[in-house]
Structures are given as C-alpha cells and as structure tokens.
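Aggregate trends can hide what the representation actually does to any particular protein. For completeness, the protein is quoted in full, as a sequence line and a line of structure tokens.
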Amino acid sequence: MAAIEVQPEKGQSSQRERPTTVTGSLLRILGLIIFDAFALFFIYLLLSDGYWPLAGIIGFITLVMNYIFLAPGAYPMRWMSPGLAFMLLISVYPILFTIYISFTNFGASNLLPKVQAIEVLEQRTFLPETGATLQYTVFRNDETGEYGLWLIGAEDSFFATVDDELTAEAIGAGALDADGIPTTIPGWTRLSRAETVRNITAISATTFGLEETAVSLTGRLGEAAQLQQRFVWDEEQNAMIDMRDNVTYFADEATGFFTAEDGTRLTPGYQVTIGLQNYQRFLTDPSFRGPLLRIFAWNVTFALLSVLFSFALGLMIAIVFGRTMPGQRIIKSLLIIPFAVPQVITLLVWRGILNPLEGVVPNMLQSIFNQPVGWPPFFADPTWVKVALIVINVWLAYPYFMLISSGALQAIPTDMYEAADIDGASAWQAFRHMTLPLLLVAVGPLLISSFTVNFNSFNVIYLFNSGGPPMVGTALPAGHSDILISYVYNLAFGRGLALYGYASAITIMIFFMMVIVTIFQHRRMASWEETTN
C-alpha cells in the first residue's frame, strides 16, 4: 500500500513553532539586557575615572553586539560575535589608542587622567603646627573586627575608634602597664607588634577619632599624628590649594600640570592633548633629530644588508646543492638548523660566542692576529657591534632564502640553459641574464616582506646588546646599534623614561615609512616583472 502522508493543518505548524521562537527571542533580549547593563555600568566607571578612550570602544562594541543580535540580517554574525568583540578590544583598540596618545603628553609624569590626578593629590596630608604626634597601640574589636587605637600624647591618653574618642574610664580599661597602655579593654584584643605589621595596610587606610582632631598613622611604626589634607581641589578656580604653604596651583591645560605662579609644578600631572608637538619634536628639534637620523640610517642599512647577504648566501647554497652530490640531504638538513632553532636561543648563543673575554670567536681572532684580550670589541665599538649584528641576522635568515631559492630554481625550465650553452653563454652570463631575473620575479615579494621584518627586527638588537654602546651627548638615551623599534621601546619601557606619547608618535612615523618603502618596492617589482616578461 502506498504510504499516506498526513499534512499538518495550517494553524498547527505555527502554533508548534511559535513558543520556540518567542522563547528564543525572549532569552536573546534578556541576555542583551544583562550584557548592556554590565557594559553601561563599566562605561560609567571608566568615564568617572577619566578613561574615555576605553569607554568609547566598550560603547562601540556594545552597539555592535546589539545590532548583531537584534537585526535579522545580521543573524549569520551571531556565532562570530565573541571573536569580533575580542578583535575590536584586543587588536583594533590598541592601534587606535596608540594613535590617540601620540597626540598627548602621556608619560611618566602624566600617566593619569585629571580626575585621578586630583584624587591622588587630595590624599596627601601634612602635620600642622598645632597638630600633635602620639604613640599608638592597636586593639581589635572581638565582635566586629574593627580597629581602635590607644593613643598616648604629651599631656593625656585616650582611646580612639573610627568616629569617637573615649577615656579609659568610659571604656572600662584595666590597669595601665609600665608603658601607659591598658592591660585589658572589655570587648577588645590588643595586637602584638607582628600582628600590627601584618594588618598595617588596613589600619593605615583608616582615620581615628573625631573629625576635627582625627588621627592617622604616619610612616613610622607606632607613631600617629593629627594630619590634615594638604591639597584641596577648587573647581571654580580650576586649581589645587596647598593648605600647608598657602599656595595655589592652577591647572595648565597646555602642559598637564598644576602650576604655581613661580613655575613650581605638582606631580603627578595629568593627560592632555598637545596636538602635533610630539611629531614636531621628532622632525624639527635638533637635539632629538640628530640621533634619530643616525638611528634611521643604520636601520635602513641593517635591513638592506641583512636581506642582501642572506639572499646571496641562501641562493649560493641553493645553486651549489642543486647539483647531485653525496650526502646532499644530510648537509641540507644541517644547513636548516639555524632556521629551526628558536631565535631567542640562537641569539643568546651568539652573544656568548662573541663575548670579548670568553667567546670562541674573539679568542680565536686574538690568537691569529696576536691581539690583546678584549679584541674585537663586539660590544663596545659601534662598528664592530654593527658587523656582529649583521652577521647574526644573516645566520638566522639564510636558511629561509635557501629554501625559497631552491624551490624557485626548480621552476626555471632547463631547456633555457641548454639554449644558452648552444649560444656560447658563460655560466655567469646565464646566471646574470636568465637565472637572476626569473628568480627575482618569483621571490621579489618575499624580499620585500623580509626587508620589512628586518626593519623591525627588535629581538636581534635587544637580546644581543640592547642597542648599545650608548651615544654621547644626546637629549634622550640612544645607542649606536639601536634601530627605530628598539629606540621606541627604550623611550616607552626602558631606561626609566616612559615617554609613551613621544614613542607612539615615532611608531606612527615608522608605520608611514614602511608604507612608503613597501609601495616603492612593489612598484619597482612590477616594473621589473614587465621588463622580464
């Protein structure tokens, strides 16, 4: 019998699917409400602390997530939304933030937004002339765990809690010991010196006693004083008032510091936008431009020579081993080792090999050329350092060029060489007019990318000698073997400078340099391919 297919009635299908659809929509909306609530709260906290760039990217991600989960046309992107959010936060935001801080004074003295800089200054205290210094002993409440201080002054002694001052009689203190401290206080336990040290952070964050005579711990263990707030923020004057010295420090929005009339500044300062000042310093200031020009020239030389020598050595080995010879595979495998070993290990090994006192290479050269200990000065002399860095970089890169050259050589038809032999061309002429042009067409883009990699070869410079030896007479610390990326790293994170804004400006300039160089090289390669074809 033929199977009878029962079709559901029109209203039946929609009734079965509707609960699932409505439930899914409600769960999606509920999830978005929870997500938006957390995001808005986080954005509020960031804006309150003055971190508006991060608040902006969180807000943008929130809008994108709402669009993806509410717009029917964006349904396929729902499964990608977590990855998209992390990409915007971890990849896109750092780039945008780097661009932003290149237009600011962001640095060691200007790390905080203005709101937080004010909070830091308002936490500073001083001891007024009428203030008293007292000796304290810490007690802890047996029920609540709060702390109290037994304070001994020049004239009297009393017990202070968070918001009250009590006499010994009021708290029912027991007899005083030889140091004038109660042996017992009902409901309170006296802390030993070790217990006081372990809890000093929580105790120091608390003020004890009445508001007008509040006591705080000083930096000396066992000593408290009636400290007062030193700096008070005056919003109307846009200034910090020094209550101790009676000096007004006005907010200077051009420099990001609270500055008095005599030029005295308060630290920390705060972040402000300074426009193109970092770029102007990079391009026009002679004290900064001098070392930068030398660093840039060495950077280009280092990248060019590294690519040239690495490609030449790799190509030579590829041509030599392109012929049949015994043990070819074993030798080729050994030649790939520098490329297979992690770069960090290789660089540290080279650093030891070239050590002027104990290295293998200096000891061998000293014996051959009858030179004193310490020669050649691979770490002290600018020229020798640069020679060593190029040799190391060639050692690291030649296996790569050997591999790609071997593959490219195999793609060249052999009948072209047979025709060249018939025409009487020498081996050099065949290489110069046939092999090299065809090879460059194939590996040209890889040479361009290798130049870019070597232009930003931070590991080689930093792990070998951190850019040394240092240049003399520069406005900012710089090394003779520094390239731009290592120089920027030292400005931002090394040598105690923390010039994040200026380092970011140089980073942006490096990016545009690389764009220009890459475009130029691509055009040259395109013209080369047209000429070859």
Summary: The two ends are 73 Å apart (CA to CA). The longest strand covers residues 133-141. The chain has a mean pLDDT of 86.
